[in-house]
Amino acid sequence: MVKANNINTALKRGVSEVIIESELRALMSTKTTLRLKMGFDPSTPDIHLGHVVGLRKLRQFQQLGHTVVLIVGDWTAQIGDPSGRSSVRKMLTADEVKQNAATYLNQFFKIVDKNKTEVRWQSEWFGSFDLSKVIELTSMFTVAQFLARDDFSKRFKEQKPIAITEFLYPLLQAYDSVAINSDVEFGGTDQKFNLLVGRDMQEMMGQKPQHCLLVPILVGTDGTNKMSKSLNNSIGVADSANNMYGKLMSINDDMICPYFELLTDISDEVLATTKAALKDNDVNPMNLKKDLAITVVRDMHGGSDAEKAALHFKNTVQSKGVPKDIPEFALSALKNIEGQRLSSLLVTCGLAKSAGEAKRLISQKAVTLDGSLIDENISINDIESGILKVGKRQIIRFKK
Questions:
Q1: Around Cβ 269, how many Cβ atoms within 10 Å?
Q2: Residue 399, φ and ψ in degrees, nearest 5
Q3: In the prediction, which pLDDT does 86 show?
Q4: Is residue 354 domain-shared with residue 279, that is, in the same domain?
Q5: Phi-psi region for residue 150, left (φ > 0), alpha (ψ -120 to 50) or beta?
Q6: 346 with 313, same domain?
Q7: Stretch 244-248: mean pLDDT, rounded?
Q8: For 168-227, how does the pLDDT look when each residue is reduced to its tens digit (9 = 90+)?
Q9: In this structure, what CATH number is given to the domain that contains residue 360?
Q10: What does the alpha-carbon distance between residue 125 and residue 134 come to, in Å, rounded to a whole number?
Q11: Looking at the predicted structure, is the pLDDT value of residue 320 above 80?
């Protein structure tokens, strides 16, 4: 039998709503092994700490003996989830989805136990779907039910387009629950409609309806919006230890406790003490952020890298110094970079992932050479030596 306090933690800590909590609590008190569903659309190649909130909850249930069924949405990703969207999302090709999925899975298993996870691809069941099956699914729900959904309702009232494919999205996600015989589906609070459609569809198709566990939406580093790569306020799972640590140190003070609650395993008692100390101004928020940053980075990268990241932050941001162990690049080896532009140099040196990102960083005045701002028009041939910084945390040294 599972201990009641473990069940309570699983159902309460970092959870917004459980449907239906009393029934799921009773089920978890038995020896029943539950099938836990979470689906991810590989619409981009990386995941961030906002996704980690749900993945940590899955791992917690794994530790209680339940089976995680991770669904790769290789079909729904091509449509795009309309949840919270104010416009139609561009459809992806099958090849784009596959490339993104490979990266996604590597990052998933930094959090979830791979040996206790069943990975399923939607193409296993949707690959053989015919028109009659699609019509059967669409007949189960009315247009009025879908237009009652907040994002659809808002767009309809504003006379903004809603593609028919977007109505299909909740149906396909719901059918995933039928295909794997889900007992519990996990998702953010913005996914509630989709999860409930799955619950209804299971019952219509003769299965026991799944329970739904909704986790909070993690606010991004801007302190206002949902963490999102497109809003440039995310902390990526694939970020280097130094960048992850630095971004965590940049969050607003009022986000410290939510981040501790959703991204770490500190006890509820310590969390309550931390909240009280912050409220009464009895603690320096900077020290709490350091504790948070090193804890999260340790989970993602290991203890050694976390300690190095903390030291790197102290030397480069707090002390405004330049550490000795920064990468060095010989300018003589970089003279033949295509275009001879600074944006190309940033990509070659690993300071930006793409020329587009590099140009954005330059335009935002985030790039300096020996402390002076430089623009895109500078030629690589004009650089003789010096320290190139992107933001406060990415630093390289040029030598002749």
A1: 8
A2: -135, 160
A3: 45
A4: no
A5: alpha
A6: no
A7: 92
A8: 888 999 999 999 999 999 999 988 989 999 999 999 999 999 999 999 999 999 899 999
A9: 3.10.290.10
A10: 12
A11: no
**Is residue 92 in some structural domain?**
yes
Residues whose CB falls within 8 Å of the CB of residue 100, separated by 6 or more in sequence, listed in order = 42, 43, 44, 45, 77, 92
The reported pTM is: 0.75
Amino acid (one-letter) located at 325? D
* Buried b or exposed e, range 63-83, using 16+ CB within 10 angstroms: eeebebbbbbbbbbbbbbbbb
> Hey, which bits of 164-323 come out as E strands?
184-188, 211-215
Q: Which amino acid is at 191?
A: Q
**What is the pLDDT of the chain when averaged over all its residues?**
84
Cα 350 to Cα 252, 353, 380, distances in angstroms: 28, 7, 16
Tens of pLDDT, residue by residue over 79-103, are 655 554 444 456 677 788 788 888 8
Residue type, 215: V
State which residues form the domain around 376. 328-399
- Cα diameter, the chain: 72
CB atoms within 10 A of CB 222: 16
203 and 248 belong to one structural domain: no
